[in-house]
Each structure stands twice: as structure tokens, then as C-alpha cells.
């Protein structure tokens, strides 16, 4: 059941009576390439025509005005004014990992158009840990980061703030969001509190080089393949031709193949769980033991995409954002995408859910004002703009979802629907999982590739190493 929209917050429904608004707003089209786990990579803007945005926004404003008459009246408590809606000058500090161009396009400009009295100042995430900011007294009002930062920094530094009272105060409708993302965010609290709102969705796909498949006379990948089928296809595509080594398949991170089964590295009791990874370890070994395809885990998007750009890698499981950005840089590259391969016993399941969140810092003295800003950045108006420029929306409205990449001519005719066909998994991430544990797992999975030891031995040794790491952290009071 939808609650009433609130003036100034605006849940942004665009004529839910069935009218489809083709809006244009702002963003640079990156697919959530911000922080942690999804390394940020440069690249030119995909679409940046300010005039086009302004015209689109003008049209949208007119339509929204017409739609507004169809909305219910806000609840009495939702009409309480704050400095943002009262037009008073307000400066809010944002802690996040965007470069300056993305920060301006995805945050500053949308807010300036809606609330010209609001100034957003970014505190760059790089080097500025929350611990350092607290110590210096330079704390933010709004936090923008990928979800693992909630575990690694926000909650440990007690900067998490439950937004539920503000959600109720303003009659804000969480039903507009992808329900699994809301559940994921509530999972950070034993009480189901909302420490932030999802803002930008991260998606994954199987990219493939169409020219290589044509050249070698092999049928290209299709949606809903199993890992068994994909590995067989990788074996057929791995070869030396004309003195060049061509590889069949690679993947961005080792945990992609395990997260589909919702397997944790460290379980909720704080115990290492790698002994449960026998199935993904077996598939991982099969893929990377293909002669000519046995390379170390790249670990970053840049490294895994480089051979794809050079057309020596046929398929790659990855966040497709860099490829979308690089389409203009590599116009000769004929590529398309399919769904990520799945386990036969668990079809229609993608790798781990990830997203960028917007949260309010517990120390902020401008919580209402911060909420107004966050609400607008997640309005239909702004989310449509993101989505049309290939930054996937976190909203559940099919009318918005179907507009994905509509303003990106390089994606015309490509199978972008594959990005949304599967449900994303959401394995538990322990507070003890950090870069040191990640490095341990990465090193041991590289041992699987070399075949120096059997998988069971490697997983047992990994459990032992992680257990020692956890014990050391506990002894150090972490």
C-alpha cells in the first residue's frame, strides 16, 4: 500500500495511472563504479549534453505538475518545514568515493535544480576514513558508498543512523524500491533498522566478443546457460591461432562463482566457512585448468577487461559498466552480453547483490535536510535520468526499469535485458572479512589454478588461515 507523496520530498511517481514519462536528467552513465568491491575506472562520459537534460527536465516538470493533481494529500506530520524546503541556505557535507565530475553530475546538479539553496560539499573517501574524520571533527552529513562500507566503516565507527523515524515522518514509500535491496539494507541491523537507502544498483553479466565466435565458427553464449555449459564453451574458444593465444573465459572476482550459492567466507557465528565451497572450487578448477586459460585471478575490472578490449578474451563475467563506457573508445569491438551462467541446481540466480547507498551520519545536525536531499536523489525523476544513461535504477517500477540505456546509442540492439533477468544473491558478509582475508582467499584460489594441491586441502588450509586471522583480530580488540 503506497503512502502519500510529500511536497519537497516527492517520491517521484510519474503518473501511476499508466502514463509513461520519457524523462531525461543527469548522470554520466557509469554502472555504480564507485568504491569497494567494484573498482572505479575512468573513461569519458557516455552522455553529457546539459541542454538535453534541461529540455527533458522541463518536459518532465510539466508532466509531474499534471500528475501531482492525482496524488493523495500528505499526512499532516509530513508538512513540517525544514531549512531545505523553507528556502534557507544549507550546506551539507557528503562523504563518498566519486570523482569530482561524477559528484557534480550525479549529486550537485540534480540538487541544485531542485533546491538551489542547498550546497553539497564532498569529503573524498580516499584516505578520509570515518575514524579520521571523527577524530578531526570534520564529519559528514551524508554518506555515499557501496554496501560493504556499512560493515567495514560505518557501523564500527557508530556512524550508522536509523532513518526509520524520518521515513515515517515524511510518509516515505519504501515500496518503490527493489524489495531485495531493502531487505539487504535492513539485514545490517538485528532490529531491521534502515541505516541508509539504496541509490545505484550494481549488475553483472557475461560479456562476449561476437567477432571471435564468428571467426572460430562457435555458437555464442545465450541467456540462462549453466556453468557446465559455459565452461564447455570456454574450452572450445581457448586456442592458439596465428600465433596468438585466445582464452575462453575469465571472471572479475573469485567470489562471483560462490556468491550465487549464498556461501559466506565467514559465517554468522564468526567461523571460517571455506570448507563449504567445494562446488564453486570444483567449477573454478575446471574453468582455469583449461590449457591456455589458466591465468591468475585478475582481481580488478581493469585487469580483467584489458584482454577483452584487445580481443584475445572471448567471454568475461563482470560488471559491464567499463565496457559500456569504453564503447566509443573501441568502436571496432563487436560485443554483446548474456546472463551470468548459473548452477543447474539453482537457476536464475546472479552473483552477489551490490549497490551504492545514501545514508545519514549519526553525528549530523541536519538530518531532516539530509533526508530531503537523499529523497530527491532517489526520486523517479532523477532515477529515470540515471537509468536512461545506463546506471541501473534501484526502483521497482517496470516503466522506469524498461528505459535502461535508452539514451545510449552504443547499446541499441544489445541484450541489455540480460542484466535484469536473474535475482541477485545476497550472502552474509562478516565484520571479520577485510582486505587481509580477501587476500588469503585470492592466494589460495590461485593455488587451485596451479593445481599444486587438491581442492579439499586448499579449502582446509584456507579455513585454518582465516580462523587464525580472526583470532588475531579478537586478541587485538578489533
Automatic annotation (TrEMBL):
PANTHER family hit by this protein: ARABINOSE-BINDING PROTEIN-RELATED, POLYGALACTURONAN_RHAMNOGALACTURONAN-BINDING PROTEIN YTCQ
InterPro entries: Bact_solute-bd_prot1 (IPR050490), SBP (IPR006059)
A Pfam family annotated for this UniProt entry: SBP_bac_1
Protein name: Extracellular solute-binding protein
Swiss-Prot/TrEMBL keywords: Cell membrane, Lipoprotein, Membrane, Palmitate, Signal
Keyword tRNA processing on entry: no
Stretch list, region Disordered: 1-45
SUPFAM superfamilies reported for this sequence: Periplasmic binding protein-like II (SSF53850)
Compositionally biased spans, kind Basic and acidic residues: 13-31
Amino acid at each position: 500500500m503506497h503512502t502519500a507523496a510529500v511536497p519537497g520530498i516527492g517520491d517521484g511517481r510519474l503518473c501511476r495511472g499508466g502514463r509513461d514519462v520519457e524523462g531525461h536528467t543527469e548522470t554520466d552513465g557509469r554502472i555504480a563504479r564507485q568504491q569497494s568491491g567494484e573498482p572505479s575506472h575512468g573513461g569519458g562520459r557516455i552522455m553529457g549534453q546539459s541542454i538535453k537534460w534541461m529540455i527533458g527536465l522541463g518536459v518532465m516538470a510539466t508532466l509531474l505538475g499534471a500528475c501531482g493533481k492525482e496524488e493523495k494529500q500528505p499526512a499532516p506530520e509530513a508538512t513540517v518545514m525544514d531549512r531545505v524546503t523553507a528556502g534557507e541556505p544549507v550546506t551539507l557535507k557528503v562523504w563518498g568515493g566519486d570523482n569530482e565530475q561524477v559528484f557534480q553530475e550525479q549529486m550537485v546538479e540534480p540538487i541544485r535544480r531542485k533546491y538551489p539553496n542547498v550546497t553539497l560539499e564532498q569529503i573524498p573517501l580516499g584516505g578520509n576514513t570515518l575514524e579520521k574524520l571523527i577524530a578531526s571533527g570534520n564529519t559528514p552529513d551524508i554518506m555515499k558508498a557501496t554496501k560493504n562500507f556499512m560493515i567495514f566503516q560505518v557501523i564500527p565507527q557508530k556512524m550508522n543512523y536509523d532513518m526509520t523515524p524520518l521515513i515515517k515522518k515524511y510518509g516515505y514509500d519504501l515500496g518503490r524500491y527493489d524489495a531485495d535491496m531493502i531487505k539487504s539494507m535492513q539485514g545490517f541491523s538485528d532490529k531491521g533498522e534502515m541505516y541508509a537507502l539504496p541509490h545505484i544498483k550494481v549488475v553483472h553479466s557475461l560479456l562476449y566478443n561476437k567477432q571471435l565466435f564468428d571467426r572460430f565458427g562457435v555458437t555464442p553464449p545465450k541467456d540462462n546457460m549453466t556453468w557446465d555449459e559455459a565452461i564447455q564453451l570456454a574450452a572450445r574458444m581457448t586456442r592458439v591461432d596465428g600465433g596468438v593465444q585466445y582464452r575462453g573465459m575469465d571472471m572479475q572476482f573469485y567470489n562471483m562463482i560462490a556468491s550465487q550459492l549464498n556461501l559466506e567466507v565467514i559465517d554468522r557465528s564468526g567461523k571460517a566457512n571455506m570448507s563449504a565451497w567445494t562446488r564453486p572450487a570444483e567449477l573454478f578448477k575446471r574453468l582455469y585448468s583449461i590449457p591456455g586459460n589458466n591465468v591468475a585471478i585478475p582481481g580488478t575490472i581493469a585487469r580483467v577487461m584489458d584482454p577483452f578490449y584487445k580481443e584475445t578474451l572471448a567471454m568475461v563475467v563482470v560488471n559491464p559498466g567499463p565496457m559500456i563506457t569504453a564503447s566509443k573508445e573501441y568502436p571496432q569491438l563487436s560485443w554483446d552480453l548474456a546472463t551470468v551462467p548459473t548452477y543447474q541446481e539453482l537457476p536464475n540466480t546472479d552473483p552477489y547483490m551490490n549497490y551504492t547507498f545514501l545514508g545519514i551520519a549519526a553525528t549530523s545536525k541536519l538530518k531532516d535536510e539530509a533526508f530531503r536531499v537523499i529523497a530527491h536523489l532517489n526520486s523517479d525523476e532523477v532515477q529515470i535520468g540515471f537509468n536512461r544513461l545506463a546506471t541501473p535504477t534501484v526502483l521497482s517500477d517496470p516503466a522506469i526499469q524498461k528505459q535502461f540505456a535508452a539514451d545510449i546509442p552504443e547499446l541499441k540492439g544489445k541484450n541489455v535485458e540480460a542484466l535484469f533477468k536473474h535475482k541477485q544473491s545476497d550472502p552474509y558478509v562478516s565484520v571479520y572479512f577485510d582486505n587481509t582475508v580477501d587476500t588469503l582467499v585470492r592466494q589460495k584460489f590461485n593455488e587451485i589454478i596451479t593445481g599444486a594441491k587438491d581442492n579439499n586441502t586448499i579449502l582446509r588450509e584456507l579455513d585454518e588461515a582465516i580462523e587464525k586471522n580472526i583470532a588475531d583480530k579478537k586478541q587485538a580488540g578489533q
